[in-house]
What does this fold into?
Amino acid sequence: MAVKLSQSLKQSQNLMMTPQLQQAIKLLTLNHLEMTDMIASEMVENPMLEEVRSSDSGSETDYKLENLEQQGQEANSTDFNEDTLVSKQDDSIDWQQYVDSYNSTSSQPNMASGPVSADEMPNYENMVSKSMSLAEHLEWQLRMEDLTDEEINFAIDIIHNINDDGYLAAPFDEIIERGNFEREEALDLLEMVQRLDPVGCGSENLVECLMAQARIAEERSPLLEKIIRNHLTDLKNRDFKKIVAATGVSQENIEETAKLLHNFHPKPGRLVSSGDTHYVTPDVYVVEVGGEFVVQVNDDGVPRLRISKLYQDMLNSVDSLENKEAKDFVQEKLKSALWLIKSIGNRQKTIERVAKSIVKKQQKFFKKGPKYLTPMILKDVANEIGMHESTVSRVTSNKYMHTPIGMFELKYFFNTGIGGKNGGVDVAGEVLKLKIKELIAAENEKKPLSDQKIADILSREDVKVARRTVAKYRELLGILSSAKRKIK
It folds into this structure.
């Protein structure tokens, strides 16, 4: 009996959320103190890592990062049988616990290790800051978008109906009724809010929240989105056979794809710290050298890491290890160590690039002070450094820059232009506050300036703002109306 042999070529699309990418994203969200704590924890857990001491001679036996990366690649190709990098993760995932965490009081997936909360930050250093609330954090990003006043007001209404977990506290249909938009237009604005950082805030349910996070992946996975939309309950019940029957995909592929949910947050609102007062240390220093402003990332307390000499010797003789578990342990810890070292470097470089872009665009501010802050939005920096706006948002959140004129949160430098309509000149919101404050400080207390009068004065300086805009910024400054300021 003749046997007929044939070959076929099958093309498939898989999303590979590599550990490098996971590590880099996580590190970007941490401030300086949180990062040093995380590195200290990793050094305890991973025996491969050791700190380079200043007294070390740096002999030829020390591994350079490039050599280690090459060695890791060779081990990856010859000693690992895995379809994707996520397949090395724990197979015994409690999906019941993951989905139930949506209804619990926890802030993150129980199986994922997230950023250290603001409450866990060490209480030292000499700088105190009050962090943004979730609503303030979302509204700050919203004002960077190119929207009409009516669209902004509707989006703010959405934001003010988002609870601490990141979900809408009121039915979206009720919010639509309060606005002047058709449902389709309103949904577009809702999706825009959901794309703000943290992604997924403004969702009505868990499926909508996870879908919002899945849609912003660098490489979208149709299978992952299908699992989220139609099979969360099946995943919760570990009914993989039902998912296989519905999707036509192997159980192994489904399990590996579902593991990407490790990186999603059922309660994204909890990623933004509460409004508690906490201590901070600068992530970036700006110093003036020879008339130029130089950016230096704060490396104080960040250890220089390398692979342990003991494990270097083990790596050299890894083929002689007869115990498979020991061999796998050494190789896995090597990959983890390499990725951490590289991720720390990437984080510092990204922060440096963002900080340099800020300094480049805000030269007048650093030379002459806050009155010369230039309007600038996330997109301006993102376009210059070739990164996504959400990445810039993560870099600027909860991170501080020490400058010759004081300490500023990186977010401080981002302001939309105000007063540029009708032929006027754009100024940053912080500059407008200073101008209003100066005018009120110099007014006649018996005849205080009304909001309209202040708007007229600003108009003569080519800052054309409406009376209600002056009133809004005056209220933000905590200054009373002219009627209440008047001294009889």
Observations:
- The longest strand covers residues 284-289.
- The radius of gyration is 27 Å.
- Residues 57-92, 103-129 have pLDDT under 50 and may be disordered.
